[in-house]
């Protein structure tokens, strides 16, 4: 029993040490992007240059010298920071609880990991039992972002950049199809190509066209029939980005299932090991109380 407890403590310290390091990495990365994005500027200069070149090609003169990545990714950085804190706390509880045999920390640790496992299992069950409801709950905010915030192909706001990135790189248009842009309140349909200086009226965003390259490193077409009079041959009008993302997930389903199963096994193993150490300490304390 002593060997089992000793091995359990070693595994708890090692695995949770990794959790703590991962959490610390997430926390530091989130803080750097949110509060010190200037540190990343030298490493992102190529991206900024490509984005500025793309904007100029799209007919929009943009000065990215004062571009602040943290301002664009506020919600994402906050989520990353919170995730980092969560991982770090779990890792510390598991490490200290396993190393120093602190029962209260091991109990809290086991409860937290158990809740995570339950949430993961519940999510998978819901995903396959009420797929339509899950899809609608995810699609709703996506469609709302198009309707309320999407402004166009040559815009620099976060929502427009995000949708342009998704539609170009995933070869798709809208959430389900191009019709969602018909109700986009802020989308500027009048567009003047830099090549011709003649205004055209777009039926779908230019990002829905079948373009070569990855955003923002793409070459715009010489004429924009793909956006003014779109067809399935010229544009991705019939392929939604939601389904495109699911296609990518399905194509890599074996890898994702393997990773998910591995994570679940590790989580269950950590719960079992924590319980072993915890029960051993309880028995030790009970024996001590009995002796006195």
UniProtKB/TrEMBL annotation:
CDD domains: uroplakin_I_like_LEL. GO terms for cellular component: plasma membrane. Gene3D superfamilies: Tetraspanin. Pfam families: Tetraspanin. InterPro entries: Tetraspanin/Peripherin, Tetraspanin_animals, Tetraspanin_EC2_sf. It is a multi-pass membrane protein. Keywords: Membrane, Transmembrane, Transmembrane helix. It is found in: Membrane. It comes from the Eukaryota. The chain crosses the membrane at residues 12-35, 76-99, 106-130, 255-279. Belongs to the tetraspanin (TM4SF) family. This is Tetraspanin. It comes from Haliotis discus discus (disc abalone).
